Amino acid sequence: MRNTLLSRAVRTALVGALLVSAATHAQDSSPEKKTTDLDNVVVTARSGVETRTKAETSYSITTIDEDRLRMQAPTSVTEAVKSVPGFWVESSGGEASGNIRARGIPVDGYGSVTLLEDGIPVQHDPALGYLNADQAFRLDETIERVEVVRGGPSSIFYSNAPAGAINFIPRKVGDTPEGLVKYTVGNYSLNRLDFWYGTPVGSGWKLGVGGFWRVDDGIRRPQFHADDGGQLRATLSKELEHGDISFDVKHMDDKVALYLGIPMRTNANGDIRPVPGFNGNYGTLAGPDTEHVLMREGDGSLYNFDNDEGTHVKRTQVSFKFDHDLGDDWKLAESMRYSTTDTQRNGVFPNALQSASSFIAQDTKRLSAIPGATGLQFRYVDNPSQVFNVANQNGNGLVVTEGLRGVTMPVNEFINDTRVLRKFEFGDQSHDVTFGYYHANFNQDFGRYSSTMLTDATDNARALDLVGVDANGNVLGSLTDHGIYRYGYEWEHASGKSDTNAFYASDEWQVTPELRIDGGLRYEKVNVKGFTEGKKTIDIGGSPAATSVITGNGVLTHYDQSFDKTGWTLGANWQFSPRQGLFARWTSAFRLPNLSTYITNPTATPLLQTMDLAETGWKYSDRFVDLYATAFYTKYDNVSFTNNVFDRNGNTSTPQTGFASTKTYGLELEGTLYPTKWFDVQFNATLQDPKYKGLSYTDVVANAPVLRDYDDNQLIRVPKVSYRIVPGVNLLQGRLRLQVSYEHEGKRYVDTANSVVLPSYHVVGASARYDATQQLSLFLYADNITNSLGLTEGNPRAGELLSSDAGANTFIARPLLGRSFRLAAMYRF
């Protein structure tokens, strides 16, 4: 069935594209593109003396140029790659902390792809527990274009990149001064200023400076600034007689909101909607009652939980690049980056949702903690005389157990990549050879403290106290402390260091003018060492909420582990005509255990994750059409799953671990049609069959072991079908550009058991550009015009192996951000 589906999809897509191409060729009046897409030079996931165009690459790559990027105007790093086939992206959490699932590799965050800036990793490990690479990078007008490699040789040239690499390439300074200023406003109180200026500064040196500043109240408004901050960068470069050199310094001080799930329900006709009293498009549980909370700690101190901070990143980054001709046709390419990143990540996590009546029924057993009490009631913390209506408060009668989680992560990192290159000629054939050495070292501290708070289920939720009352309704005591149900249900103190050394080599063998074979090897070794402090549970007194506070016990458990592995890739490209070609590739990739494996679990049993990736593709480009079709296969082994299920009764998170493999067959389509000078259509689509293989684990039910077997289940949060279509028109001799985007995401699942469905959805957006003069351009952006409530994820805290939300009428889920508008003016000089 699967092979029939994919083969039918392949035939339909390819035949349709060829028919469109043939039809457009029949229109003699159609304009000719100045260049074809295949002529673009590629710099990502390859190394060599000679440049390579997109036509000459033997792997899948998406290029997003300056105009396309500016028309798309992504609000986050994750949004920037939503036009890339093979990637399922989730950006409903805000400007940072996005998720990318690539080609059937079931890893959250940026665990399967690396994020590059000017070819250098933003972060050696892009999925460093609670610190994804997109938190340490912001997109602004200093970036000119983006190259996205899917699979291919990414894992040879970069660490932690089995499924690909996303390279944000900065602007280069020309021979004359130039610059731009762009100001953007939005209907969510957005004010943003971007600027860039580049100029020669004498003696062959060139200086570029730029950055951004931004403040807004958020599309889901918490009633305080959601996003606030910016960054500045300066680049000094020079072309030398035998190479070039550049220095780049960037400082970021920015905080962004972390949007989490909201209360949803399934109504009578099966549609999923927010619960009554909650705005699904713009509402958030975060609000004034959870903005500033002083949480008691086990050592007697107070933890200042400040949700106004959101994810606050202070980062200073210094980069250096040096290319030099060593003589005798040998070349040296050197790049290094040092960064210091301080992150405070605060969030209001909705751990559980239930009816107030069932909550009280469960906690009635705790009445003995309040002498004389005969019953329990919910009262509002800001208005103790207001009794919560358990039947229909806010139209829903629901209570949320919130996790107020604060995480602190300072990281210092050094990355160095040294390459030696030479091209060897052998008659009509040549070998473009690279030998490389990569080193990465970073130190990380980690601290976490969390408490649970009870709130109602409304926009900007209000805190609730659970009080004991006598027969007359008089309050005799409280099981909570100003809404806090339990202090210290999470606590961590850890520190670690990671050292990575890798040696790699690649060869691009030009067999004939049309045929090139390339391959590569990478040997990598990592050592992680550090400590994690043990925990104990104590009663610090003063409130029932403080009777079981987790804190440190002063016992440090040390670890010192090393792992190594070799990966390889082999590909071929047959460019049998200037307009089209075929390529094929097989890659054996891996991801080594890392510091995140141990930082909170020093006795963890690490698993080395290995992958086999295959792809074969056809590319065609002329003045009427750019078309790329790629079939891929991914096998991913030793995937570990930690299932942290929040238990409201015990206010604890219980870990469950499973191990599995995955197999995915898929087809990616990407391209642009140019029927006329004034009309074009961009498109990308992914058809895939992502399955778990051998996923099983033992659960405990009624004190007896139960085997859970989810073999052949669909990968969580990955659709089988997704596509994006962007038709656009160019009017007034190209001065006016109008385009509409339509995005469809197929059905997905919350958990590996496939017990909770995330229904298919679609999103409509639009953008416009008007060049008022050669210097002044105006832009209009409209996102999620129809206010789609498409669900991007369920509640991970309900369990991602087998969700405890299965069969529930009300649950926590995270939908798309609501409709928003932005207007921008850009002036070039």
From TrEMBL:
Cross-referenced PANTHER family: CATECHOLATE SIDEROPHORE RECEPTOR FIU, FERRICHROME IRON RECEPTOR-RELATED
Species in which this protein is naturally found: Luteibacter yeojuensis
Domain spans labelled TonB-dependent receptor plug: 54-165
Signal peptide interval: 1-26
Gene Ontology cellular-component terms listed: cell outer membrane
Name of the protein in question: TonB-dependent receptor
Domain TonB-dependent receptor-like beta-barrel intervals: 295-785
Cross-referenced InterPro entries: Beta-barrel_TonB, Beta-barrel_TonB_sf, Plug_dom, Plug_dom_sf, TonB-dep_rcpt-like
GO molecular function, one term: siderophore uptake transmembrane transporter activity
